[in-house]
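Quick start: read one record
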Amino acid sequence: MPEDPNILLSYVNLKLRDCYSSLEAMCEDLDVRLADVEAKLKGIGYHYDREQNRFTGE
C-alpha cells in the first residue's frame, strides 16, 4: 500500500471501483488493517462512503 495519503486515496478508490465490493473485502484480501487505512485518509479529510463504495471528502 502506498505510504503517501494522497496516493493512497487514489489507489484505494481505484481498487474499490475496479476490484472490491467493500472496504472490508479489500482490506481482508490485501491483508491490511481497515482502521489504518481509514485513519490515514481521515487525516487528509476523507471518509469511507459505504453507499458509493469509495472515500469522499468531508
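DSSP finds three helices and two strands in the chain.
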